[in-house]
Amino acid sequence: MTEQDIQEIKALLIAPKNVVIIPHKNPDGDAMGSTLGLCHYLIKNHHKATVIAPNDYPDFLKWLPGNDKVIIYESDMSNAESLIEQSHIIFTLDFNAFHRAGDMATSLANSKALKIMIDHHQQPDAYAKYMFSDVFMSSTCEMVYHFIDMLGDTENIDGDMATCLYAGILTDTGSFRFPSSTSKTHLVAAELINKGADHSEIYNAIYDTNSYERLQLLGVALKNLRILPEYKTAYITLTQEELNAANFRKGDTEGFVNYGLSIKNIIFAAIFIEHKQEGIIKISLRSKGAFSVNEFSRENFGGGGHTNAAGGKSDLNLIDTVEKFISILPRYKNTLNS
Ligand code: 5GP
Ligand code: MN
């Protein structure tokens, strides 16, 4: 984002605008935190701003300030479509390709509104008039803070904005443990605490709300964990039956994949989750160091993301998907062991 871009955006935001802010499909903490954080900021600056999520998100995010005003495209389509229709500006946050907006992709592509992207994923598409894209950023929430800083307006960040942005930084950095969280990330987090984010309360609201069933499901996942030492790889499977038995709710499997990476000498972890209704296996991939799960997913499972965290999917059944996964590992053996 150039100085010229910032000046143009500033000029654009002088008069009240209709703004729609969109996170990616299956929104996570960073997606909801960044969209809601920015939404509070724009509303405070007299714009009419609405967050429209492509589909629903987990309960552990439903306490975020402004959560009650989020529109879910999937279940409120005509309302969402008319807001998109009337919008002057569309912000797309925490994703960089239209298809990541799920069923909203077409309306997004057809909309004449001016588009602004704020995102930290790799290989961005060039659909936005203004692109703030930086793969070295810990989170989109950190970028929203920098965006407001570039607008020269951090003194207007209030407790609600700070809470939303802090929540997304916390989740996307794995509580500040991934290499992507820099000293700058910590400085931003400190600023957000100064502006009213209660770090302890936010942590509790996100992580200490387990249901008994979720912990039972974690037990099943850990039992299903397999390791392939020659590839420094660990993987977990969960069948639809196992999910049903644990009364699965959206978000319950969040973070399970990381247990594989916590094993000594394991640098590549995967989880394969059966979604019978959609007829797909959802895949989450994580790595440590230089092994790029973004590349691995793009090459084999039609997904992508970051170097150390990516998603993907498979149309094969669960057994065949795992078989495919194991059969392609030899191609990566050298990289995994280097
Ligand atoms: P998760 O495994 O938590 O679903 O995703 C890990 C990371 O990869 C997140 O930052 C997520 O936004 C991104 N991601 C997940 N699926 C895809 C995908 O299909 N394409 C791209 N480009 N990124 C993805
Ligand atoms: Mn993110």
Describe the structure.
- The chain is built from 13 helices and twelve strands.
- The chain has two domains: 3-207, inorganic pyrophosphatase (n-terminal core) (Alpha-Beta Complex); 212-337, Diaminopimelate Epimerase, Chain A, domain 1, CATH 3.10.310.30.
- The protein has a six-stranded parallel sheet with strand order 3-2-1-4-5-6, sandwiched between helices. The protein has a six-stranded mixed sheet with strand order 7-8-9-10-12-11.
- The protein has helices spanning 3-12, 29-44, 77-86, 105-110, 140-150, 159-172, 183-194, 199-207, 212-224, 240-245, 257-261, 293-300, 318-337; strands spanning 18-22, 48-53, 71-72, 89-93, 114-119, 130-133, 226-228, 233-238, 268-275, 280-287, 304-305, 309-314.
- The two termini are 36 Å apart.
- 41% of the residues lie in helices and 18% in strands.
- The protein is α/β, with parallel strands linked by helices.
- Guanosine-5'-monophosphate binds at residues 24, 100, 121, 284, 303-306, 309-312.
Whole-Å distance between the termini?
36 Å
CATH architecture tag of the largest domain:
Alpha-Beta Complex
- Give the count of helical stretches: 13
The level of helicity is 40-55%
Q: Which CATH C-level class of the largest domain is it?
A: Alpha Beta
Q: What ligand molecules are bound, each kind once?
A: guanosine-5'-monophosphate, manganese (II) ion
- Apparent shape: globular
Order of helices and strands: HEHEEHEHEEHHHHHEEHHEEHEEH
Count of separate structural domains: 2
Sheet with most strands: strand arrangement: 3-2-1-4-5-6
Number of strands: 12
What is the CATH T-level topology of the largest domain? inorganic pyrophosphatase (n-terminal core)
Q: What Rg, in angstroms, do the CA atoms define? A: 20 Å
Strand content: 15-25%
| Structural class assignment | alpha/beta
- What is the average of the pLDDT values? 97
* CATH homologous superfamily assignment of the largest domain: inorganic pyrophosphatase (n-terminal core)
Contiguous uncertain segments of 5+ residues:
none
Largest sheet: 6 strands, parallel
